Amino acid sequence: METKPTYAELEDKFSALSKKIREQLSLGNQYRDLVNSTNDSLYLVDANGRYLFMNPDHASRMKIAQAKSNAYSYKDFHSPEETTDFTAKIRTVFETGNSLHDEHESSLGGGYFLRTFSPVRDQDNNGSIIAVAVVSKDISKRRKIEKELLKSEEKYRQLIEYSTDAIFIIKEGKITFANSRTETMLGHTMDELELISFINFVLSEDREMVFERQKAILYGDTSAGNYSFRITNKNGGTIWVSLNSAAILWDDEPATLNFMRDITSQKKNEARLLQAQKLESIGTLAGGIAHDFNNILAIIAGNAEMAMAELTQISGARPYLKEIASAARKAIELSRQMLAYSGRGKAALELIDLNAFITQMAQLIEASVSDTCQLRFNLARRVPLFEGDPSQISQLIMNLAINASEAIDHAGGLITIATGAVFC
Fold first, then answer.
1. Which residues touch 42 (CB under 8 Å, ≥6 apart)?
2. Which residues sit opposite 387 in a β-bridge?
3. Which element (helix H / strand E) includes 352?
């Protein structure tokens, strides 16, 4: 026969049970406070997407009373497409017992949410899954920052890719990054560029200078960052370039950021300008000499004419004096052409026989063009006379011949000066 517990024993058991209940209630309140105080949406759903519970944050988003949440399903607040996707994820958790994650753009007021789907198990029933807990964290600000960052990166990418300058990174002597203009200028793809030392593109005469400059930049000498040199591309062509370099860290290692511009046309224009300045100087010098020479020739020709006037027609000296006078007149004409070329001749309109004019200038033209050029005259018959300033016509013909010679450069070629009549 069992003995009945004493009153004191019953009171002790009751006190212990009351304590345990208070502890459980306290723990439950702590969990409830934790769920209710979080800024994330938290809710439980069954396999059909019906709400079993939702915290105040989610109830506020759905604009319903928390106490009445179990009267609604996910489909009551979302589009058919969203509901289909959500239901598939819920069923996957029920079937596999594994948690999963997704990023979801909500149709309720917009915004992006990171959702975690986790199984809720019944510990008293072999751990079977009785619901799915969904934690939905608002990541709208993060996504906005990411979009702005991607947008900014795209702007910079376009600035680099569509730049007319070659932009590239040199690290350990090789190009590790390059825009499309670099590939076009050097004639190599990025995969090829990574295998070739940059110094190999530099013309041999300029390599030491470029090497020293790049080294100085890496050591912090900012004054060494702007210079010009020549490179050869894949096709063997030589290009004049201007390089602006700065020291940077690339993948946490020292490197140089380089902006390279093709200045070949600029260099050619500078060479033409220098040649023009030289020709101008020569023209000025030639004009001064021609002027003095013309005065001397005039004295020679004048004295020869006066000497012939003193001689009889049968004098043996007369033919020699006549030859002297003729040669002096030809020399005077040549000096007149030199004066015209130098721009010191007097401007005057007169009838010009273009063929005769070019023939008289032939020697001067031949002396002005490159030795690698052949000069050919193709003068048409019966070219009509025209009125013009001999000085300007002479200058025009000389400029045409010299420009043609410069265009041919050192390659050599044929320059043809032709005349003809065009009837309009």
1. 35, 54, 55, 57, 58, 133, 134, 135, 136
2. 351
3. strand 350-352
Predicted pLDDT of residue 127: 78
CB-count burial class (<10 Å; 0-12, 13-18, 19+) for 201: buried
What span, in angstroms and rounded, lies between the C-alpha atoms of 43 and 270? Answer: 77
In contact, 170 and 250? CB cutoff 8 Å:
no
Question: pLDDT per residue over 150-172, tens digit each?
Answer: 888 888 888 888 888 999 999 99
Give the list of residues 6+ apart from residue 394 with CB closer than 8 angstroms, or none.
Answer: 337, 340, 341, 357, 361
CB atoms within 10 A of CB 140: 14
Backbone region of residue 241 per phi and psi (left: phi > 0; alpha: psi in -120 to 50; beta: other values): beta
Question: What are all long-range contacts of 200-204, with beta carbons under 8 Å and residues at least 24 apart?
Answer: 201/231, 201/232, 201/233, 202/229, 202/230, 202/231, 203/229, 203/230, 203/231, 203/232, 203/238
Pairing of strands 373-378, 174-178: unpaired
* DSSP state at residue 173: T
Q: How far apart are CA 258 and CA 244, in angstroms?
A: 6
Q: For the chain, how many helices (H) and strands (E)?
A: 11, 14
CA atoms of 295 and 303, how far apart (whole Å)? 12
Output the DSSP codes for 159-170. Answer: HHHT-SSEEEEE
- The per-residue pLDDT for range 8-48, each reduced to its tens digit, is 665 565 455 555 545 544 444 444 554 555 678 888 889 88
User: 307-345: per-residue pLDDT in tens?
Assistant: 877 777 778 787 888 888 778 777 777 777 666 666 655
One-letter identity of residue 365: I
112-122 and 128-138 beta bridge pairing? antiparallel
> How far is it, in rounded angstroms, from Cα 34 to Cα 21?
20
Helix (H, G, I), strand (E, B) or coil at 219: coil
**Sign of the alpha-carbon torsion through 280, 285, 289, 292:** positive
- List Cβ neighbours of 78 (8 Å cut-off, separation of 6 or more): 86, 107, 108
pLDDT in tens, 375-424: 899 988 888 888 887 777 877 888 888 888 888 876 778 889 999 888 76
Q: Which residues contact 158 (CB under 8 A, 6 or more apart)?
A: none
